[in-house]
Write a structure and sequence with these properties.
With 408 residues, this protein is an alpha+beta fold. It folds into two domains: 277 residues, Lipoprotein localisation LolA/LolB/LppX (outer membrane lipoprotein receptor (LolB), chain A), CATH 2.50.20; 111 residues, no CATH class. It is 20% helix and 30% strand. It is built from eleven helices and 19 strands. The strands form two sheets. Strands 1, 2, 3, 4, 5, 6, 7, 8, 9, 10, 11, 12 and 13 form a 13-stranded mixed β-sheet that branches. Strands 14-15-19-18-17-16 form a six-stranded antiparallel β-sheet, covered by helices on one side. The longest helix has 11 residues. It is globular, with a radius of gyration of 22 Å. The N terminus is likely disordered.
C-alpha cells in the first residue's frame, strides 16, 4: 500500500478514546468489565483477524469507556505522576497534558465521540466537575468546568496531519483503540507469538480476542489482549497483562458504543463567559510528551538530578543505547554523573528530596557491574548503578542486572 494511502488510513484512527503516553509509553485505551459470555463465532486465524482490524472503515462512533491502570508505583512516584503538570503547565488546569497524565494511574470514566479524522471529543466524567478535550477542524479545545478555564490551540494543518507524525493537536487529543491496536500489531514481529483467544462480549457486542505474547524471557509483559468487534473489525478493548499475574496493568475499552454518526453540535465549543482562555503553542510545548531525544521522563522524579550530578534528562556524555530487541529491549543511559549512590546515601548534607527518591527506589542490587538500586513498577523497571548509568525497560530486575553486567 502506498505511503499516502497508509497516512489516510491512519488518519481515520486519530480519535480520542484515551491516552497520551508514558510514554511513555507507556500507554492504553478504554474498558473494564467482565466478559458477558463467550459467543459462538466463525473460526478465524490470527492473520485473518489482523486483516479484519486493518480493513475496518469505521470512523464514526460515540459512547462511554473506562480505563484502569495499575503500574504498582511506589507512593512517591505515584503521587508525582498523578499530579504531573499541576500548576506548572503553561495551559493551567485546562491543559490536556496535565489531564491525560492522570490516565497513568487509577480508574477513569470517559464519554467519547468521533466523526472522522477532523472531529473528536473526549470528556472525563470521574466526578461532578467535567473536563472535555475537543478537536474540531483546525481547533483543539480543552475545558475545565470546575476552574472555568479554557486551553486552545489552532493549527490549520491539524485535520490534514492526523495520524502523521507527533506533536500536532490531533495527536495530543488522544488515540483510539484502533490506533493503539495498530501500533501493537505493527510492533509484533519475530519476538511475538500472535494467536486468537476465547471469544468475548464487550459493550454488548460479540468480539474475537487477538492475543500477543512475548516469545522472549525476562519481559514484565505476560500478554496483550485485543477484543475485536466481530462485525466491523473495530478494537473494543485492550488489556495489558503482567507476567507476574494479578489484575491487568491496563484495562481499557468501551462500556457502551454506537457506530452511528454523532450529531454535528457534539464537537461545537465556545468558551463560556468569564472563562480564562490560554492559547497553546502548535506542536506542543518544549519538553512535553513526545519532545526531545534525551529521555526527559527521568526528570519527573525529584532528587534524580542530585543523584546523577544534574545529568538527568540530558543524556549524559554517553547518550542512550538500546540493548536487545522486542519485548526484552533495554535502554542504557550514561548520565555522566560523578557521584555514587553510596556517597549520596551517606552524605548528611545531601538534599532531602534526593534521599527520599533514593529510598523509594527499592532493592539494592549488585553484580559484575558493581552496585545500584532498582526502581520497580509492574511494567517498567529501572536500574540506577553506583557509577551513574541507568538501565530501563519492560523487563525484570534480573534482566536489568544481567544487561548491566554485560554492558558495564
Amino acid at each position: 500500500m502506498a505511503t499516502n494511502a497508509k497516512s489516510r488510513k491512519a488518519a481515520r484512527y486519530a480519535v480520542p478514546v484515551a491516552v497520551a503516553g508514558v510514554a511513555a509509553a507507556t500507554v492504553a485505551m478504554v474498558p473494564a468489565f467482565a466478559n458477558a459470555g463467550s459467543p459462538d463465532l466463525p473460526k478465524v486465524t490470527a492473520q485473518q483477524l489482523i486483516e479484519k482490524v486493518a480493513a475496518s472503515e469505521v470512523e464514526q462512533f460515540s459512547g462511554s469507556a473506562k480505563i484502569s491502570t495499575d503500574l504498582g508505583l511506589p507512593s512517591l512516584a505515584s503521587g508525582l505522576l498523578g499530579g504531573a503538570g499541576g500548576g506548572g503547565v503553561a495551559g493551567g488546569s485546562a491543559d490536556p497534558q496535565e489531564k491525560l497524565s492522570r490516565l497513568a494511574s487509577g480508574s477513569h470514566t470517559l464519554r467519547v465521540a468521533a466523526d472522522g479524522p477532523d472531529r473528536q471529543k473526549i470528556t472525563f466524567v470521574d466526578g461532578k466537575d467535567e473536563y472535555s478535550l475537543i478537536h474540531n477542524g483546525a481547533d483543539v479545545w480543552g475545558y475545565d468546568s470546575k476552574a472555568n478555564e479554557v486551553w486552545h490551540e489552532k493549527d490549520p494543518e491539524a485535520g490534514k496531519a492526523a495520524g502523521k507524525g507527533r506533536g500536532k493537536p490531533a495527536d495530543r487529543v488522544g488515540a483510539s483503540p484502533q490506533e493503539l491496536a495498530q501500533e501493537i500489531l505493527k510492533a509484533a514481529g519475530p519476538t511475538t507469538d500472535v494467536s486468537v483467544g476465547d471469544n468475548a462480549q464487550v459493550a454488548g457486542r460479540d468480539a474475537y480476542q487477538l492475543v500477543l505474547k512475548p516469545k522472549q524471557s525476562g519481559s514484565t509483559v505476560g500478554s496483550v489482549k485485543i477484543a475485536v468487534d466481530a462485525k466491523n473489525g473495530v478494537p473494543l478493548r485492550v488489556q495489558l497483562l503482567a507476567a507476574e499475574g494479578g489484575k491487568p496493568i491496563v484495562d481499557a475499552g468501551f462500556t457502551k458504543v454506537d457506530f452511528a454518526k454523532p450529531a454535528a453540535d457534539t464537537f461545537a465549543f465556545t468558551p463560556p463567559k468569564g472563562a480564562k482562555v490560554t492559547e497553546g503553542k502548535a506542536g506542543g510545548p518544549e519538553g512535553g510528551p513526545g519532545h526531545g531525544k534525551d529521555f526527559k521522563g527521568l526528570e519527573a522524579f525529584p532528587g534524580l538530578d542530585a543523584i546523577t550530578g544534574g545529568a538527568a534528562g540530558k543524556g549524559g556524555d554517553g547518550g542512550m543505547k538500546v540493548l536487545g530487541e522486542g519485548w526484552a529491549a533495554i535502554a542504557r543511559i550514561d548520565t555522566g554523573a560523578g557521584r555514587s549512590l553510596k556517597e549520596l546515601e551517606n552524605d548528611k548534607n545531601a538534599p532531602k528530596e534526593a534521599k527520599q527518591f533514593l529510598n523509594s527506589l527499592g532493592d539494592k542490587v549488585s553484580g559484575g557491574f558493581g552496585e545500584g538500586r532498582v526502581f520497580k513498577t509492574r511494567l517498567v523497571n529501572a536500574l540506577i548503578t553506583d557509577d551513574g548509568k541507568v538501565y530501563v525497560g519492560a523487563v525484570t530486575k534480573d534482566a536489568l542486572v544481567q544487561a548491566a553486567t554485560a554492558n558495564k
